[in-house]
Amino acid sequence: EKMKCFLLLVSMALFIRDSSNCLESDLPFCKQVPDWHGELTCYTERKISLFCSWLPVPCAPKTTTYTIILKWDKISRCFEKTTASTSITIERKSLYMNRAVIIWVSANYSHESSVKTKNISIIPSKAEKCAIHSISAHQLSNRLIIKWDAPKKSMQYELQYKEACSTSSQWILVPTANDAVNVTVSDLNSTSSYVIQLRCRPSEDHHCVCVWSKEILVPHKLIDKPTISANETTEISPGRINVFLQWQITQSRNVIGYYVNIERIPNSCNDQPERISITERRLHLNLSMAYYRFNISAYNEAGESPQITYVVPDFTSTVLPGQITAIPQGNNTVVTWTPEYIPKCFVVDWGTGKEDMHMKIITKPMGNFTLDHLQPYKLYKIMVHASDICECESFTRHERTFGVTHFYSVQGVPRTGPATVKISNIMKHSAIVKWTEVPAEDCLGFLQGYRINYTDTMKNLSLAVAVNSSTTCYLLTGLKEKTAYTVQISGVTTAGEGAQSRSQFFTTLKYDKGEFEGIVAALCLGIISTMFFLPIICSLMLRRSRKLCWPTLPSPRDSSAIQDVARIIPRANQGLTSRLLLQTQTDNDTTILHVIEEDSKASLLLQPFSEDTEDNSECDAGQCESAGGSPDTCPSLLKIPEKATATEKERVSSSMRAPLLSDYTSMEFSQKAMLSLALNLPPWAAHPHMEGKLNNWPGKVEQHTLFTPQDYVKQSQVVFMPTGPTLMEETSLS
């Protein structure tokens, strides 16, 4: 234990610092680190004190303290002073102004570790600060522009800069040329802000100390003017309006505030516009209906941005406190009004536009005012305002518009027509004409309406239509199809019709929209319908023609000739029957007589005729039914006389059995068949009832007549038979 204490005392003795030899000991427990560029600088202030400053140790704890040490030439005692800041001022009583001194600073982390700066050597009486006057800097987009005043002696400077908002940013050194008074740093971040420092570079010709200037925050120069993003004008009371404005600026993050200059038009008081400083990008103002001009700009440390100008537009109010009447009288115009109350003063504004307005303040209680030296054919606007405070600077806040009117001292006709005339929707008999309004400065009077002149170029026929002044579109009707027209439009005032616009040509259509397509569609439909109905029509016409040229053959069943044949050709009782089945086609365009033989042994027996009497041998219904159930056959059959010879019997039998073999039976065939039958039959068979009479007429020439009554015979038909008495009978059938 005693041995340990002894060794500790020996160690302390070896490391005890001799105050008279502080430069050589040089703080054995301290070391100089390359990361700490102390930038120790010392200079005298007004030769009464020594000021020293240095940079803090990077990442040093808050408890770090700094000790500054001054070692004078040929003086063994050192000056030491400890501080927690990074600068110190040494009073004159502790200084040797004309002796050289070595100065350094040590940073004490703890009792066992410290770091120190480099040593500097100065003579206090000659260590004056090199002054730099009037440093100006601004940032323009991605560039820094720094300027300073030129020194009295030629000197070189150096600049350093870094980002202001970044704690980890490092200083960047920028050298300059000799005798330079400005420097520009490019390729920077346009959205960042920067700080700069400037100092001179030491040289042998100058004995002053080059010290970095204070950190200067470089503001962004505002080069863009604000832009109006929203505006609105509303009426808050008769004669008073509220103006709302909102604007934007691209450099808003570098803006401190905004200036708004409010100027009344006209400004006869010649006062400076009222200036308002605000921080928001919006504004509400209550004003009269007079013309006002706003000039808006942004500002910061670098200055003021360019201004944007906004003029309050014309506001038309339907309700005002009073009415104004302007009556032209030669070159003068008398303006009268009747106020509802008598204010302290009236303010009369008149002119042809915002930039040509005049102002008159009337303090007398009068209700009229005469305007002279007015220009003819010019539209004037006159406004009368009432105010209870007759001071120019108070009109903005206190005046109220009493009435507004427009007038011409002398009216003329419009000097130009509509600048643009367009023809659209051109149809077969109509077209739409559109045009732009005649500018107010070209009307030279109050516009009453428009006159539309359109001319048929083929017939040189002109027509005109008058419309009111609020109309800029008109439908021309009653036009001819496929006709060329020219259109001209002119304005009309109380002084007459003005100049016409340029001629516009157009040609009406031959067909309206869809009309030609409708015609083609109808034509195609007609062709299709014709092709469909033509065969039907032709068929009907053919049938009609056949009916007219070749009459339809009636049904032989119902013919009187067939009935007579049935009466004169009886059916044999022994069963030898033949049935005539007549079938007619359903369409009745042709008739065919079909003779169907049911019994091949049936024979035809002729009913005898009598000259004196008509046929009395008609069979009744009961006899017909007993003969075979057919109305076409007769039950009264002649029997062959017994006294007839065998040859006659054979002739009768074969003749009656002769069938009609043709599929088509005409009247000619029927007649021939009847004639053949009559010729083959003996007289007693053809006319059994006349047998006795014939026998009683001996010596006479036998002559038989066979009658074939039917519906088809149009003239008398007489058939003479070679034997028997002469019998003649005539039948006319229709």
TrEMBL record:
Q: Which UniProt keywords apply?
A: Disulfide bond, Glycoprotein, Membrane, Receptor, Repeat, Signal, Transmembrane, Transmembrane helix
Q: Which Gene3D superfamilies match?
A: Immunoglobulins
Superkingdom field: Eukaryota
Question: In this protein, which residues make up the domain named Fibronectin type-III?
Answer: 123-226, 417-511
Q: How does it sit in the membrane?
A: Single-pass type I membrane protein
What family is it from?
Belongs to the type I cytokine receptor family. Type 2 subfamily.
Q: Name one GO cellular component term.
A: plasma membrane
Using the UniProt annotation, give all residue ranges assigned to the region (Disordered).
Answer: 612-633
**Which one Pfam family would you cite for this protein?**
fn3
Q: What is this protein called?
A: Fibronectin type-III domain-containing protein
Report the InterPro entries cross-referenced here.
FN3_dom, FN3_sf, Hematopoietin_rcpt_Gp130_CS, Ig-like_fold, Type1_Cytokine_Rcpt_Type2
One Gene Ontology molecular-function label: cytokine receptor activity
Q: Where in the cell is it found?
A: Membrane
Signal peptide positions on this chain: 1-22
So where does this one cross the membrane?
Answer: 519-542
